[in-house]
Amino acid sequence: MAPDGHLHTIDINEELEAMCRKYFVEAGLGDKITQHIGRGLDIIPQLDEVFDLVFIDADKGNYGNYYDLVWDKVRPGGFLLADNVLFHGDVFDEVSKQSTQAKAMIAFCEKVTADGRAEHLLLTLRDGLLLIRKKD
């Protein structure tokens, strides 16, 4: 992170807030990290920020919504990283055998692929990481 950088985290699990804060402070980053506790769908619209990088690792059915909510907050040339897009390999199963989450990941990837404002690259590391670059 750049010396003047700042990290925002969003977590729905309030039980983790104190533990995370402890480690942020121990790492000397307490003043560089803002924790938001609650639903991302509620918090993201309230953030008045421009981001260089957004990492999405949340409820799979809402990846497309998170993408839409953060898009205008990402600077041109900035990145979105979407985790778990291969969803345990379930995205390769026959449609009748795919889980709801796998179908959500397929729909999300199709959404990104159809978005002419973005360039994308799928890394097949572990559970799949989709790198998305907002075109200049």
Outline the structure in words.
The chain has 4 helices and 6 strands. The mean pLDDT is 95. It starts with 6 loop residues before the first strand and ends with a strand. The chain is globular. The protein has helices at residues 17-26, 40-43, 63-71, 100-114, and strands at 7-11, 33-37, 51-56, 74-83, 118-123, 129-134. The longest helix has 15 residues, at 100-114. The strands form 2 sheets. It has a 4-stranded mixed sheet with strand order 3-4-6-5, covered by helices on one side. A hairpin with a 5-residue loop joins strand 5 and strand 6 (129-134). Helices cover 28% and strands 28% of the residues. The chain folds into 2 domains: 1-38, no CATH class; 51-134, Rossmann fold. With 136 residues, it is α/β, with parallel strands linked by helices.
Task: Write the topology of this structure.
Blueprint lengths: L6 E5 L5 H10 L6 E5 L2 H4 L7 E6 L6 H9 L2 E10 L16 H15 L3 E6 L5 E6 L2
Parallel strand pairs: 1-2, 3-4
Antiparallel strand pairs: 4-6, 5-6
